[in-house]
């Protein structure tokens, strides 16, 4: 039943996308389609904090005089309820607020908005709705660590590690994201999952896998081109492959003693947990993540272990680049020396990846090698 709803929703989205494209072809030369044309999205119905009978915040709500530049999608990790009523959605909002205030000790709900499985949209943290309607200010939430001051957080009811996304939730998510993009001038490619920044499985593999489709749907709704982002990989216990070998070498470069066997086993998990903790990169920011998620490594934790490397560099971090280049079909000996030959290979890899050709492996280079 749920599967069928999703397929119907996809068809509807495709139809909308085709309609937008047809207008584009008829009315504009291709070159004119690139700049932001400012299509507007209609405001979806969003229930305010007073509608769902929120408690007052226990502290001051921080309203920033700046626009958010990205949207971060979460799942609540709560049961996949069959109750699609508004009263259930309001109850969910109250439960989340209680948990964030009474257990996490926060001043209010962490996320800016909440989306129920029935497709009911609700304001999360106080003042978020007025800020969104105004389009020039941002309410700083508590949902994604370092990203709170620049991102809007949306909690989607349910657990999408394996279950499919209900069509009603999906449609309201597309509407809300389209409205956010329209109001703030956010690029539709700047829609991410929680795991893109922190070491968490949120928003679940199923919902996460649909983020490219979400970006495309939002872009189609507004007539905007979409640049799909390159993101850091999420490593889980038992993960294997070149990205694990690279992490093991990078941890070694920081002084950790871990085997370089390409398997994300216990000692690698322990060593990498230290890196995650340094950045406060884990933790129960999502409503239902009451259980810690040990043994995960992803998001910005990668930035802590990936140094900028260029000609003359030596050591385990260089060897990590060499292993990753080889895994991408550019053989270089894994000798830990950033010599002339490696500079040439890096330059070729950068050109093929659409990056600035510098011969230096920076954040963008690491993202393409690992992502
Ligand atoms: Zn989350």
Automatic annotation (TrEMBL):
Coiled coil: none
Keywords in alphabetical order: Signal
InterPro entries: Amidase/PGRP_sf (IPR036505), Amidase_domain (IPR002502), Peptidoglycan-bd-like (IPR002477), PGBD-like_sf (IPR036365), PGBDSf (IPR036366), PGRP (IPR015510), PGRP_domain_met/bac (IPR006619), TAT_signal (IPR006311)
Keyword Signal: yes
SUPFAM superfamilies per UniProt: N-acetylmuramoyl-L-alanine amidase-like, PGBD-like
Ranges where the Peptidoglycan recognition protein family domain occurs: 44-198
Signal peptide: 1-32
A Pfam family the protein falls into: PG_binding_1
Every N-acetylmuramoyl-L-alanine amidase domain range: 56-204
Similarity annotation: Belongs to the N-acetylmuramoyl-L-alanine amidase 2 family.
The protein's name in its UniProt record: N-acetylmuramoyl-L-alanine amidase
Protein species of origin: Saccharopolyspora ipomoeae
